[in-house]
Amino acid sequence: MPMSTETSLAQIGVVGLAVMGSNLARNFARNGNTVAVYNRSTDKTDKLISDYATDGNFIPSKTIEDFVASLEKPRRAIIMVQAGHATDAVINQLAEVMEEGDIIIDGGNALYTDTVRREREIAARGLHFVGAGISGGEEGALNGPSIMPGGPKESWDALGPLLESIAAVVDGTPCVTHIGPDGAGHFVKMVHNGIEYADMQVIGEAYQLLRFGADMSPAEIADVFAEWNKGDLDSYLIEITAEVLRQVDAETGKPLVDVILDAAGQKGTGRWTVKEALDLGVPTTAIGEAVFARALSSSLGQRAAAQGNLPTGSLKTFGELGLDKAEFIEDVRRALYASKLVAYSQGFDEIKAGSDEHQWDVDPRDLATIWRGGCIIRAKFLNRIVEAYDNNAELPSLLLDPYFKGELEGLIDPWRKVVIYATQLGLPAPVFTSSLSYYDSLRAERLPAAIIQGQRDFFGAHTYQRIDKEGTFHTLWSGDRSEIES
Ligand code: ATR
């Protein structure tokens, strides 16, 4: 029998008690649930019980069999182990002892295609499998994450109240809802992370312009960001950026940001988002640029070879541009806001495309709602996205929502100016600039794609369509250059 701090059965179990898993288990316990806990090596289980027994009722087990036996039916077990092989191993161990109708939840950052496969395999064994994206990091896991569960609807009925008991709450609404079948939850979590990459990058670009364009100190920029955090850009990421910029390195007395190596790491979800976007044919340019910007930052050898070693053309200093500092700061804020809008709009486009492709029927309004709290991209701005989808569930692009269109009226000129300034100052702003090109492409009456179709027809007889009549056409380029219908 499992050793028990409580005689009744547990409503929920957590397998894998590293930081995320134990924080999640504690969160469940603190919210009145009896929580079965199990870890492959017992030291982590012992530590959880010895350090945090006061959080609530835990039932620790030393074997997976005891763990499963300590759960009430339908049994609900959340796996919080390393993504990949470890997850598959634990799923198998659980599936061997669980019974029909029981629910296995993978709370890790699984690739959604793995989740689709696992769901199929588990369903064939009579069990339910739920791939749940959990956002908010360690702190969120403990105090209220944003949770994106996929899997069968029936499992949501058994799981929903439990997940609602631990999720972040915004305006009385828990930041969790059933996203859609099989891999839907992990898919939207992936795109959430991609959006996060873009959001972080646009903040970085604003910093770069203020720091090396307007020559402001990190502390001054921290004040600017703290001010921005009171308006349209009010968000967790802006808030913590101000904190990072204010931090002074104890060892050197310099701003911490100046002693941190400027090579950004990544765990892969941003890259997955872009790969998937490529497959779906959705232009998530902002997320793509953000992923590439991290890659470029980490190409230290190449950067060292290029530093001071490439022609710059005739750059201008901030002074030479004759800019007013306060105006420049405000223009940068607006460029950031506009680029962020593009990034979110593209992310939601990818979710729609993924949902259509897999017939998940994901409601974008739900996502904006549950991302308002608990997760890294939590922001006031998401309320506007909720309203946008309230007004029109079939919006062709978030940018076309009347509220955002109105915002863009005030953003577009500063945005264009900032892109020009960045170019003149010689400062990189890949998401600011590419997002503006995306925006101009989206609204353009004619795109150079007509030329590309002409070229394709010339070298490969790939044919083209005409704007004035139905059909598919080819010009006899190496003949008399007359047009034939093909
Ligand atoms: P973190 O980054 O927070 O440490 P992680 O690396 O994603 O978390 O996951 C580590 C967890 O996965 C641990 O609970 C680990 O168990 P041990 O404490 O016994 O090492 C668990 N884990 C890893 N591989 C596993 C496997 N094959 N079977 C069961 N659990 C495994």
UniProtKB/TrEMBL annotation:
Pathway: Carbohydrate degradation; pentose phosphate pathway; D-ribulose 5-phosphate from D-glucose 6-phosphate (oxidative stage): step 3/3
Domain 6-phosphogluconate dehydrogenase C-terminal as annotated: residue spans: 185-478
Coiled coil: none
Reaction it catalyzes: 6-phospho-D-gluconate + NADP(+) = D-ribulose 5-phosphate + CO2 + NADPH
InterPro entries: 6-PGluconate_DH-like_C_sf, 6PGD_dom2, 6PGDH_C, 6PGDH_Gnd/GntZ, 6PGDH_NADP-bd, 6PGdom_BS, NAD(P)-bd_dom_sf, Pgluconate_DH
E.C. designation(s): 1.1.1.44
Keyword Ligase among record annotations: no
Gene Ontology MF term list: NADP binding; phosphogluconate dehydrogenase (decarboxylating) activity
Family matches, as Gene3D superfamilies: 6-Phosphogluconate Dehydrogenase, domain 3 (1.20.5.320), N-(1-d-carboxylethyl)-l-norvaline Dehydrogenase, domain 2 (1.10.1040.10), NAD(P)-binding Rossmann-like Domain (3.40.50.720)
Biological process terms in GO annotation: D-gluconate metabolic process; pentose-phosphate shunt
Residues where NADP(+) binds: 16-21, 39-41, 81-83, 109
Residues engaged in binding substrate: 109, 135-137, 192-193, 197, 267, 294, 456, 462
Function: Catalyzes the oxidative decarboxylation of 6-phosphogluconate to ribulose 5-phosphate and CO(2), with concomitant reduction of NADP to NADPH.
NCBIfam families: gnd, PRK09287.1
Similarity section: Belongs to the 6-phosphogluconate dehydrogenase family.
Protein name stated in the entry: 6-phosphogluconate dehydrogenase, decarboxylating
Species of origin: Corynebacterium occultum
